[in-house]
Write a structure and sequence with these properties.
about 45% helix, Rossmann fold, alpha/beta, 7-stranded mixed β-sheet, 11 helices
């Protein structure tokens, strides 16, 4: 199955008009891949069937979002970055009564669960206020429930070993222990492109998402994140991403760590 340019344009138009989602934010290759995936899940044979179902209201907005959303990776992806963050948190959080961490636009709970494990091992879980956002209520519910696909568990364990964690991951998946660590977390449905983000954040984790977006929308999100960070606050992105490709952003951040893509708001 393939999609023509005219089919792409029609789907973008129909989705925008009927369920108020702007798919034009995504790079073309990403959009094509996610649309084909969505059609496969819904068992639609072609683009016309997809647009017809959307126009008739057969597909609900939240169902579309939960299937279309790009599911990124696994726990402790890029272990060196998490080791670097561990040092940062040890030095910073102990002096804070409420260190604020924001993870926007979540499509899975991988980064969030990793953060919970890290904070628990540092005995800092109660020194931190976490905000998790997604554009889908269904995704937020799944994150809260800590449902990790069995095929990911071994990979998560391997990453955790490379991270050099204190304990095994098994205990976090047993007896709802990981779920119990959510006590200082707020979950919010937020459109990062259109809605105001929480302010005065000490750290924003937005990894491996810019690569899926057009340059125009990368710029919008970077400026929104800049506004939500306090002066001196940190932004962490994916190790294959680089916010300094955007010239206007260079005046707003200092590069804290080039290899792990950690930036500090000026």
């Amino acid at each position: 199955m393939d999609l023509t340019i005219s089919e792409h344009r029609k789907i973008i138009k129909v989705v925008q008009e009927n369920i108020d989602i702007d798919l034009s934010v995504f790079a073309r290759a990403t959009l094509k891949s996610r649309l084909l995936h969505t059609m496969e899940v819904f068992e639609y044979k072609n683009a016309e069937e997809l647009t017809d179902k959307i126009q008739k209201g057969t597909i609900l907005k939240d169902d579309f979002l939960s299937i279309f959303s790009v599911p990124y990776t696994e726990m402790f992806r890029d272990p060196a970055m998490w080791r670097k963050l561990k040092i940062e948190l040890i030095s910073k959080i102990k002096d804070y009564k409420s260190y604020k961490i924001f993870i926007p636009a979540c499509t899975t709970g991988d980064e969030y669960y990793t953060l919970l494990v890290l904070l628990n091992e540092l005995n800092l879980i109660d020194n931190v206020k976490i905000i998790i956002s997604s554009w889908s209520d269904k995704t937020i519910d799944l994150i809260k429930q800590v449902k990790i696909p069995p095929k990911k568990i071994e990979l998560n364990k391997a990453n955790y070993k490379r991270f050099e964690g204190k304990e095994g991951l098994d205990k976090y998946f047993e007896n709802k222990f990981l779920k119990s660590l959510q006590r200082n977390t707020d979950f919010n449905k937020i459109n990062i492109l259109k809605e105001k983000l929480p302010i005065n954040q000490d750290l924003v984790i937005f990894r491996n998402k810019f690569i899926y977006l057009t340059e125009e929308y990368q710029n919008i999100i970077l400026n929104n994140i800049y506004d939500c960070l306090k002066v001196g606050g940190k932004l962490i992105i994916g190790i294959k991403e680089n916010i300094f490709l955007n010239k206007s952003i260079k005046d707003k951040f200092n590069e804290e760590c080039d290899t792990e893509r950690i930036y500090k708001k000026k």
